[in-house]
Specification:
With about 450 residues, the protein is α+β, with helices and mostly antiparallel strands. The chain has a domain at about 20-230: Amidase signature (AS) enzymes (Alpha-Beta Complex), CATH 3.90.1300.10. An 11-stranded mixed beta sheet has the order 1-3-2-8-10-9-16-17-13-11-12, with helices on both faces. Strands 4-5 form a two-stranded antiparallel ribbon. Strands 6-7 form a two-stranded antiparallel sheet. It has helices at about 5-15, 20-35, 45-60, 105-110, 155-160, 180-185, 220-230, 255-270, 280-305, 315-325, 325-345, 390, 425-440, and strands at about 40-45, 70-75, 115-120, 130-135, 135-140, 140, 145-150, 165-170, 185-190, 210-215, 245, 275, 355, 370-375, 375-380, 400, 415-420. It is built from 13 helices and 17 strands.
């Protein structure tokens, strides 16, 4: 796609281009280029063309159409799509009956005129940060195909970064939107937990799961989120008056200096030097690990007893280990989560927005097994969520924003991203900040065919 979602919708709504032409062009591009990135698992060709023709007929009749009219998009392969078996990135569910209806957030996007054209690759059952899938292949980073796209929503992030789709849907439990958005250089949103319905999205960790969008521009991300949420956000009149601080301590260690420099520039733009510390972040991350392992393991335990060999061995072993965790440890993890969440929310009595790295650095190479954390050599894949996992416990909305290309000169041009965090229910604050930073050239990284920063 060479146009943004907003631009596509405008050309279709005003009759400058047919929805069928948009969809056919998109399907052709995916068919030609997906073999390079492995981000698409299934094309929805027949459905997409039928929806496009129906939309074109409505426009010809002068009927009103939605704000995303004719905009193609893809969904992480854990969202129900009517008539298809929801795989959740596995073959374990292949015997399930097809979905009888779309996931609720997909229904809302369709009601706004958007057209689903593909399902997208992911880590099996969303358990991972790399989108290396034993069944459907490894999704490659469009910025450098020798590098990981991140996960677990890697297919979603890569499809947007590659310019194949203007937006895509993913899920975020411990960072599965924020990590791949950062590594691929696109915008992503983990909304306030519980704000968007999860009906029709295959679960991973019920107490942490969220669903959200990816897009190439912050304006597109806003339009998509508003359609998913069902109403427009209240605008912030004076963005420069917002109180902004960086998270210190844990969030200053083991970070690429270019990310810290990017955060410094943003703080300077808002005239802030404030830094706040968050207590017990390491324990928060450990609690997120425990909760995820226990809930994920228990969800899959009945199937693991029947068909264990159908799972990717790495996923299977982690799920089994999680199912065997003692209940006392899980209870303690949830108690700590409640304490930690209270502390996080109290920070927003002092500030309106917090800034933190999204990942330790740029995307690792696919053949890179380790990275350094705290002076120790650790698994690269397990630690891509170093900065996202602790914040998941708070349930706040988090915007993953790509730093501009100039900020990543020291990383051979590979994207770098930050987390912009607000109090629960304050997505409007995040988008106000994101739009201001994009307009100022402090955030935004061009996807193929789409200029950045987004100054609309």
């Amino acid at each position: 796609m060479s146009l943004t979602a907003v631009a596509i919708a405008n050309t279709v709504r005003f009759g400058l281009r047919t929805a069928r032409d948009v969809v056919e062009t998109t399907l052709e591009a995916i068919g030609t280029r997906n073999q390079t990135y492995h981000c698409v698992t299934r094309l929805l060709t027949e459905r997409a063309l039928h929806m496009a023709d129906t939309l074109d007929a409505r426009i010809a009749n002068g009927d009103p159409v939605g704000v995303l009219a004719g905009v193609p998009f893809g969904v992480k392969d854990l969202f129900d799509m009517e008539g298809l078996v929801t795989t959740a990135g596995s073959v374990v569910l292949n015997g399930n009956p097809p979905a009888t209806q779309d996931a609720v957030v997909v229904q809302r996007l369709v009601a706004a005129g958007a057209i689903p054209v593909a399902t997208l690759n992911m880590d099996e059952f969303a358990y991972g940060f790399s989108t290396e899938n034993a069944h459907y292949g490894t999704t490659r980073n469009p910025r450098n195909t020798d590098c990981l796209a991140g996960g677990s929503s890697g297919g979603s992030a890569a499809s947007v970064a590659a310019g194949l789709l203007p937006f895509a849907l993913g899920s975020d439990t411990n960072g599965s939107i924020r990590v791949p958005a950062s590594l691929c250089g696109v915008w992503g949103l983990r909304p306030t937990q519980g704000l968007l319905p999860l009906d029709g999205a295959y679960p991973f960790v019920a107490s942490l799961d969220t669903v959200g969008p990816f897009a190439g521009t912050v304006t597109d991300l806003l339009r998509v989120f508003e359609a998913m949420n069902g109403h427009a956000l209240e605008e912030i009149e004076d963005v420069r008056s917002l109180r902004i601080a960086r998270l210190g301590g844990w969030f200053l260690q083991d970070v690429d200096p270019a990310i810290l420099d990017g955060i410094d520039r943003i703080l300077a733009f808002f005239g802030s030097h404030k830094e706040v510390d968050l207590a017990e972040v390491a324990r928060a991350r450990a609690s997120a690990f425990l909760i995820s392992a226990a809930e994920g393991g228990n969800l899959h335990l009945p199937r693991l007893r029947k068909t264990p060999m159908d799972y990717d061995p790495a996923t299977r072993d982690r799920l089994i280990a999680g199912a065997m965790l003692p209940s006392a440890a899980v209870v303690q993890a949830h108690r700590f989560r409640n304490w930690f969440r209270t502390g996080l929310h109290e920070l927003f009595e002092q500030v309106d927005v917090l800034l933190a790295p999204a990942t330790p650095g740029p995307a690792p190479r696919i053949d890179q097994a380790t990275l350094s954390v705290g002076g120790k050599t650790v698994s690269a894949r397990a630690n891509l969520g170093l900065f996202t996992q602790p914040l998941s416990l708070g349930g706040m909305p988090v915007l993953s924003a790509p730093l501009p290309p100039a900020a990543s000169a020291s990383t051979s041009g590979m994207p770098l991203g930050i987390q912009i965090i607000a109090a629960p229910g304050k997505e409007n604050v995040l988008f106000a900040i994101g739009k201001a930073l994009s307009h100022a050239g402090l955030a935004g990284y061009s996807v193929l065919g789409v200029p950045a920063p987004d100054k609309s």
